[in-house]
């Protein structure tokens, strides 16, 4: 997989919004990846003692920083896969006492950054009571850490599912995105990642079952339209390729 590129020109003022108690979302600018404009999205969860857990941090602006500081203390910064790391340095500079966690792939990739720990198949003890966690493994292309906010029944992913609104794409890019299986309302895992599970479908099945066992009601993804209800049903449809001969 290529590395996303931040164009720097699409950075509108960012406003946090809360779809559920103790959970906030911030939508940022776009990055270019495989010529497609990928929107960026950060999830903020407030744990006990006003400590904040930030998933896939977006570009940091002063207005966003002010809103974050009103919520609590930035304690954890999460890089859930090796494509979601572009803005970590900004947050680490602004919050030097925050603890940074990433997958082994992103830790190897960003050797210029200090990571306090790697994301495994179980959550860190500090957020275990509030947030479930697993590693979606089995692909040579990418491993992604998947999270579940228990209180709001929200599944939090980055690239595991992409669900681009068709109106946001030019006709050619819409055609290509449909071929990749990432256009709303029928978003799914991108085609290249799906194909890489050719010999590891059983492992993907195991991960999917654990996700479904969480009984998610909401699906928050980094790229595209979120699923605000019946997320479990959406996921079952999005992963039908696991039960098919072709991908």
Task: Give keywords.
247 residues, alpha/beta, 8-stranded mixed sheet, 4-stranded mixed sheet, 24% helix, globular
What is the helix content?
Answer: 10-25%
Strand content: 25-35%
Helix count, DSSP H or I runs of 4 or more residues: 7
What's the main sheet like? 8 strands, mixed
Task: Sketch the topology as an H/E string, one letter per element.
Answer: EEEEEHEHEHEEEEHHHEH
Distance between the termini: 18 Å
Which segments are poorly predicted (pLDDT under 50) over 5 or more consecutive residues? 2-12
Q: Strand pairing plus helix content: what structural class?
A: alpha/beta
Shape: globular
The overall strand count is 12
Mean pLDDT: 89
Cα radius of gyration in angstroms? 17 Å
Structure explained in plain terms:
- It is built from seven helices and twelve strands.
- It has helices at 62-71, 88-94, 104-109, 171-180, 191-195, 201-213, 231-238; strands at 5-6, 16-20, 23-33, 36-46, 51-55, 73-79, 99-102, 117-118, 131-136, 144-149, 154-156, 218-220.
- The protein has 247 residues and is of the alpha/beta class.
- The strands form two sheets. Strands 1, 2, 3, 4, 5, 6, 7 and 8 form an eight-stranded mixed beta sheet that branches. A four-stranded mixed beta sheet has the order 9-10-11-12, with helices on one face.
- It is globular.
- A hairpin with a 4-residue loop joins strand 10 and strand 11 (154-156).
């Amino acid at each position: 997989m290529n590395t996303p590129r931040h164009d720097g020109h699409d950075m509108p003022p960012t406003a946090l919004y809360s779809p559920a108690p103790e959970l906030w979302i911030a939508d940022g600018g776009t990055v270019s990846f495989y010529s497609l404009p990928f929107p960026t999205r950060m999830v903020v969860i407030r744990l006990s003692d006003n400590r904040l857990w930030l998933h896939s941090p977006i570009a940091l602006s002063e207005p966003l920083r002010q809103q974050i500081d009103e919520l609590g203390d930035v304690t954890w910064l999460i890089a859930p896969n090796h494509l979601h790391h572009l803005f970590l340095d900004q947050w680490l500079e602004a919050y030097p006492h925050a603890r940074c966690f990433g997958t082994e792939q992103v830790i190897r990739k960003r050797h210029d950054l200090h990571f306090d720990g790697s994301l495994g198949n179980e959550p860190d003890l500090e957020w275990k009571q509030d947030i479930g966690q697993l590693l979606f493994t089995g692909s040579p292309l990418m491993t992604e850490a998947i999270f579940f906010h228990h209180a709001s029944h929200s599944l939090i992913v980055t690239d595991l599912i992409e669900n681009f609104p068709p109106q946001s794409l030019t006709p050619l890019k819409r055609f290509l995105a449909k071929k990749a299986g990432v256009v709303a309302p029928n978003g799914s895992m991108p085609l290249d990642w799906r194909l890489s599970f050719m010999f590891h479908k059983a492992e993907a099945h195991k991960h999917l079952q654990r996700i479904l066992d969480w009984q998610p009601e909401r699906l928050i993804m980094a790229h595209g339209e979120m699923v605000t209800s019946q997320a479990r049903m959406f996921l079952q449809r999005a992963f039908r390729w696991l039960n098919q001969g072709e991908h």
